[in-house]
């Protein structure tokens, strides 16, 4: 991962370029990196604020030989790998909010967006989009995000952080987890993910397209689906939602 990097000064979205490169047959591990995105894309059709030089805005092409239902596992894998890289490189404690937000002191510093091409029940490619607010300053966040978002630098008291060396550590961490996952399966990722999770065991509200579900977050399934126990003891399985703690 990261042996082959396509670098852009500015682009609408690295995700879009990675999709094109994947369809052209570029190999697994290919990375698209941009200094700035003008139409950065988030989950649930949101936008992702990607100011020039402030972050790591990148998309990685993976080609696991797996059925498409496994794709959510790769999102959780990426979250765990990034948390471990940030903790070891910068000594900052991170938490994960289902499915893929990385929080520091309760504010979001990293978002992950996984998109999929599948054919005949096999994954052809997965595009793992990673947005890390590295050196974003308080003023660079739009005002509506200031109480919700943070950057690694802000959490380190304003010190500038070297994006290239952090990206290298993230590639190593991702590669290590990914190889282990292909060889041994999802169980160890699931355990690590649950150990970093802010929500497990806590009362949460999941806002889904079909309404709100309240209850205790009990864990994730082998497919990466969130399990919520309602007050009557019934377990709800959440595939896509916004979580409020
Ligand atoms: C989210 O939390 O909503 C996911 C955000 C993902 C942002 C990254 S930045 C690099 C890649 N390109 C995009 O347009 N989006 C992802």
From TrEMBL:
It catalyses: biotin + L-lysyl-[protein] + ATP = N(6)-biotinyl-L-lysyl-[protein] + AMP + diphosphate + H(+). One of its GO terms (molecular function) is biotin--[biotin carboxyl-carrier protein] ligase activity. The keyword Thylakoid does not apply. It is an enzyme of class 6 (ligase). It comes from the Bacteria. Residues 1-182 form the BPL/LPL catalytic domain. GO terms for biological process: protein lipoylation; regulation of DNA-templated transcription. One of its GO terms (cellular component) is cytoplasm. Biotin binds at residues 37, 108. Keywords: ATP-binding, Biotin, DNA-binding, Ligase, Nucleotide-binding, Repressor, Transcription, Transcription regulation. Its EC number is 6.3.4.15. Belongs to the biotin--protein ligase family. Acts both as a biotin--[acetyl-CoA-carboxylase] ligase and a repressor. This is Bifunctional ligase/repressor BirA. It comes from Lottiidibacillus patelloidae. The gene is birA. The chain holds residues 82 to 326 of 326 of the full protein.
């Amino acid at each position: 991962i990261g042996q082959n990097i396509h670098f852009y000064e500015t682009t609408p979205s690295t995700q879009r370029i990675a999709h094109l490169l994947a369809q052209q047959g570029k190999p697994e591990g290919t990375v698209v990196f941009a200094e700035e995105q003008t139409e950065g894309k988030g989950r649930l059709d949101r936008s992702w604020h990607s100011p020039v030089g402030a972050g790591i805005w990148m998309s990685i092409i993976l080609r696991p030989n797996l059925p498409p239902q496994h794709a959510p596992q790769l999102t959780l894998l990426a979250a765990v790998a990034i948390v471990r890289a940030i903790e070891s490189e910068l000594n900052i404690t991170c938490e994960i909010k289902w499915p893929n937000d990385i929080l520091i002191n309760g504010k979001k510093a990293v978002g992950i967006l996984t998109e999929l091409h599948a054919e005949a029940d096999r994954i052809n490619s997965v595009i793992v989009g990673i947005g890390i607010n590295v050196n974003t300053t308080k003023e660079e966040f739009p005002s509506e995000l200031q109480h919700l978002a943070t950057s690694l630098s802000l959490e380190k008291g304003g010190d500038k952080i070297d994006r290239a060396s952090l990206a290298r550590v993230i590639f190593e961490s991702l590669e290590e987890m990914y190889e282990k996952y292909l060889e041994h399966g999802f169980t160890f990722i699931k355990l690590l993910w649950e150990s970093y999770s802010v929500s497990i065991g806590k009362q949460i509200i999941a806002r889904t397209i079909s309404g709100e579900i309240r209850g205790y977050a009990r864990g994730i399934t082998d497919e990466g689906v969130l399990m919520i126990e309602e007050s009557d003891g019934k377990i709800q399985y959440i595939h896509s939602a916004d979580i409020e703690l």
